[in-house]
Amino acid sequence: MLIAVPPVIFLGYYFNAGFVGFFSHFVYPFHLFLSRVLLFSLAPTAITCFTRGLDLRKGIEDVLCPADCPLWQFYVFGDGVYASLSSICGAAIHRGVITSAGGAVRVQALPGQENYPAVNANGIQSQVLTRWASSFSVTGRWITLFCKRPKKPLDKKAGNKDCKADIAFLIDGSYNIGQRRFNLQKNFVGKVAVMLGIGTEGPHVGVVQASEHPKIEFYLKNFTAAKEVLFAIKELGFRGGNSNTGKALKHTAQKFFSLENGARKGIPKIIVVFLDGWPSDDLEEAGIVAREFGVNVFIVSVAKPTTEELGMVQDIGFVDKAVCRNNGFFSYQMPTWFGTTKYVKPLVQKLCSHEQMFCSKTCYNSVNIAFLIDGSSSVGDNNFRLVLEFVSNVAKAFEISDIGSKIAAVQFTYDQRTEFSFTDYNTKEEVLSAIRNIRYMSGGTATGDAITFTTRNVFGPVKDGANKNFLFVLTDGQSYDDVRGPAAAAQKAGITVFSVGVAWAPLDDLKDMASEPRESHTFFTREFTGLEQLVPDIIRGICKDFLDSKQ
Ligand SMILES: *[C@@H]1O[C@H](CO)[C@@H](O)[C@H](O)[C@H]1NC(C)=O
Questions:
Q1: What angle is formed at CA 108 by the lines to CA 107 and CA 114, rounded to 5 degrees?
Q2: Which of 142, 164, 364, 539 could staple 15 via S-S, CB 3.0–4.6 A?
Q3: Rounded distance, CA 113 to CA 482, Å?
Q4: Where in the chain is the domain with CATH 2.170.130.20?
Q5: Cα–ligand 1 centroid distance for 222 (angstroms)
Q6: Eight-class DSSP state of 122
Q7: Nearest alpha carbon to residue 98 among 49, 38, 61, 36
Q8: DSSP result, 457-480
Q9: Nearest alpha carbon, ligand 1 atom 11
């Protein structure tokens, strides 16, 4: 770099400095100019979705963000000036410097600030932070121009591969809409379905009709060609009745997306609710159920209630309660069913914004859970079986797959043995069978060492992944070594620690190991037979932490 500065670098400089820089560079102090040039690196460094500002060393650095970073995973603090613990790529998307297609970003280190504001921009909600030691800013790089991916031609049968989604259209079949507008609705839904680019590798759609009782008209697997779907929509008959949208939404979230009915693993689940006027029933519970099932709910509402009608609407905030996230993205207004053609494309664009589907991630499909199992002599054979049963019962609640949740187990005495790691098994059956096959070690108790071992060897390889990490320390007694230091280190590494004690496990140790708030992360039972009763609270605890971390 020092010896031969290729011309592209100067070009980069001009782009950055703009016209003023271009025309005034003769008067620009040469040493400053050189120092700016020298700070550039020719090729941007490839970073991951999760690389943070503080991971970079230089004052100014050009980096390359990968495509398709999961937006809901980003931690971003501030707006314009970002705290250095923010994700660089997250900040760059937030700032509008790049899109989710990735690209080159210039990162400039800045001093710390007193306050970092929270701002929602470009699909990312940044968070508030007070007083942080260092910051950074992001700007665009001209190289981005050359990194655009060429457009692929559309393969009809495969469909639009860039729009992977499993979509249920929940159409309004109530007396509110009536036969005539029902037909206009069918027309609109048909146009949306065609524009989506339905195909074997693209979006799949099904239809549910909401009226008095919900009716699943066809499932995702019934048709994988746009023509067939269009035909099936044309054939739909109007059912009539009250507009029990809440009931229909709940039914669809629970019943529509099973694997047998054609839902695909790892693909966002979407319900698009079409609503003429307002629902006769409540949407709040249905909205909660949909979120638990990882469904992204959109509400397309047509014909808002008039001022005279407002008194008849039982809950005026029904849209906010039903949608996946109340950030404006998931609701869509159309004034009438007439002349809706111009509303087709914007809706399709929303449904195809893979990275905006925040609600696809749930506490069931996006966690890594490691169990650290006490195999000391005091436990005994029979109780050890009960511990394994407890581990199985917790593991059973999660959706284990290569792209979903993962389970690992380590047994410890003075020694540690990785029974299986996060990457060993990709199905629930395999994990449950591996738990059954754990052989009791018997020996002393060194819980601290075991935590350190697990943090390093079991969580080490997955710590930069998308899942949230949990460690369960199961013990029946006093540890011979210090547990506080190792537990604090595990928490610092981003692992939420739950302690589960039985019999002689000292409550102080359990509390000291557990993550904050300690009370809700500490469990205790006098008898091993009491472990089973803890399972529901533990699963709820994981889900609570997961949802809190997404706020
Ligand atoms: C959809 O598929 C299911 C199961 O294969 C079948 O029972 C049902 O009749 C199909 N529906 C339509 C509308 O073709």
A1: 115
A2: 142
A3: 37
A4: 43-147
A5: 6
A6: T
A7: 49
A8: IIIGGGTTSSSEEEEEEEESS--S
A9: 218
Query: If you take atom 5 of ligand 1, which residue's CA is the nearest one?
Result: 222
Helical axes 226-234 vs 178-196, angle rounded to 10°: 180
Strands 269-276 and 215-218: unpaired
> Is the pTM of the predicted complex or chain greater than 0.70?
no
Structure tokens at 67: 């495509």
Q: Is 190 left (phi over 0), alpha (psi -120 to 50) or beta?
A: alpha
Separation of CA 237 and ligand 1 centre (Å)? 16
The answer, yes or no, to whether any atom of ligand 1 lies below 6 A from the CB of 219, is: yes
Predicted confidence at residue 128, as pLDDT, reads 82
Atom number of ligand 1 nearest to Cα 222: 1
Residue of the nearest CA to atom 10 in ligand 1? Answer: 222
Phi and psi, residue 549, nearest 5°: -70, -15
Q: Residue 346: which residues within 8 A CB-CB, separation 6 or more?
A: 332
Residue 232 CA: nearest ligand 1 atom is: 13
Q: Which protein residue has the closest C-alpha to ligand 1 atom 3?
A: 222
Burial of 312 (0-12, 13-18, 19+ CB in 10 A): exposed
- Reading the block at residue 423, the tokens are 């990457």
Nearest-angstrom CA–CA distance, 350 and 329? 8
- Which range has the worst mean pLDDT, 1-15, 309-323, 456-470, 473-487? 1-15
Domain boundaries 43-147, CATH class: mainly beta
Could you read off the pLDDT of 327-337 as tens digits, one per residue? Answer: 788 999 898 99
Residue ranges of the chain assigned to CATH 3.40.50.410 = 166-360, 367-550
Q: What angle do CA 310, 312, 314 make, to 5 degrees?
A: 95
Amino acid letter at 533?
A: Q
CA of 219, closest atom in ligand 1:
1
Distance in Å, CA 262 to ligand 1 centroid: 11
Residue 35, classed as helix, strand or coil, is helix
Task: Say whether 154 sits in a helix, a strand or coil.
Answer: coil
Spatial separation of the C-alpha atoms in residues 152 and 148, rounded to whole Å:
12
Q: Are 453 and 489 in contact (CB under 8 A)?
A: no
Q: How far apart are CA 520 and CA 498, in angstroms?
A: 9
How far the first Cα of the chain sits from its last, in Å, is 44
Architecture of domain 166-360: 3-Layer(aba) Sandwich (3.40)
Pocket of ligand 1 contains residue 218 by CB under 6 Å: yes
Number of H helices, E strands in the chain: 15, 20
CATH of domain 367-550: 3.40.50.410
In this structure, of 119-123, 143-147, 533-537, the range with the lowest mean pLDDT score is: 143-147
pLDDT digits over 74-118, tens only? 788 999 999 998 999 999 999 989 988 888 999 999 998 888 988
Per-residue pLDDT band for 26 (boundaries 50, 70, 90) equals very low
Q: How far apart are CA 109 and CA 137, in angstroms?
A: 7
218 Cα–ligand 1 center, Å: 6
- Residue 89 corresponds to which tokens in the numbers above? 């790529």
